[in-house]
Amino acid sequence: MTEAPAPYAVHVDQVHKRFQDNHVLKGISLHARPGEVLSIIGASGSGKSTLLRCINHLVVPDQGEIHIGHEVLRSRHNRRGEAITADPKLLEKVRARLGMVFQNFNLWSHRSVIENVMEGPVHVKGIASQQARQYAHELLTKVGLEHKADAYPNELSGGQQQRVAIARALAMDPEVLLFDEPTSALDPEMVGEVLRVIRALAQEGRTMILVTHEMRFARDVSNQVFFMHNGVIEENGAPERLFTQPQSVRLQQFLSPCV
């Protein structure tokens, strides 16, 4: 009997995270249905990036669960009291279904652009090199960088490097894309080229969770927006409502410079 589709692509259930005495995440819950775009906004230090990294256990939660479709990532504590992934084999399986794009690109500096994009399919998924190269060319065309296939990261602008990073994430055919402030390390003139690529992915119906400080972009592309403050979700809702009629004082203060 075929398993019924999971109602949510991602479901974060009561996640807590502490770093020493700093309680960074205080029982966060949210979910994204397949094809939805969620944006997470908030001031620096509110816990946004920590939450995103908890989803793929780059940061392991102290409490709570992460559901990716029907799979559930749980934590346990080792003898030193450190939170670790309860099932490393399951984590490896789940991570293959999640694409992550970081603030600072994280490209292999000693590999060409096309080699960066091919790396995951060849070494993680075992796809033949020729097939992976052809697919990598298609993805570089998608992000407007097919002419840079043989260049190296240090020969690219920041915006171009981030577009390569997006192509690299797409090369694994992820069910969910996670973006951790993908434009924060870019010069202003380069922000638009990256946002155009992300917008096109949203229009394709890809499931995405985006930590961003680009308020107008979040308003335009998101199905839901979550405002984090001091480790909790202070307010969330549809972008039309949240940006025009914020209920919490904290969100009103946060948005006031944008109005």
From TrEMBL:
Topological category with respect to the lipid bilayer: Peripheral membrane protein
CDD domains: ABC_HisP_GlnQ
GO cellular component: plasma membrane
Lineage: Bacteria, Pseudomonadati, Pseudomonadota, Betaproteobacteria, Burkholderiales
Domain of life: Bacteria
Subcellular location: Cell membrane
Record-level Gene Ontology MF annotations: ABC-type amino acid transporter activity; ATP binding; ATP hydrolysis activity
Alphabetized InterPro entries for the sequence: AAA+_ATPase, ABC_ATPase_HisP-typ, ABC_transporter-like_ATP-bd, ABC_transporter-like_CS, MetN_ABC_transporter-like, P-loop_NTPase
Record Pfam families: ABC_tran
Taxonomic source organism: Candidatus Paenalcaligenes intestinipullorum
Domain ABC transporter: 10-255
Family: Belongs to the ABC transporter superfamily.
Keywords noted in UniProt: ATP-binding, Cell membrane, Membrane, Nucleotide-binding, Transport
Protein name, entry field: Amino acid ABC transporter ATP-binding protein
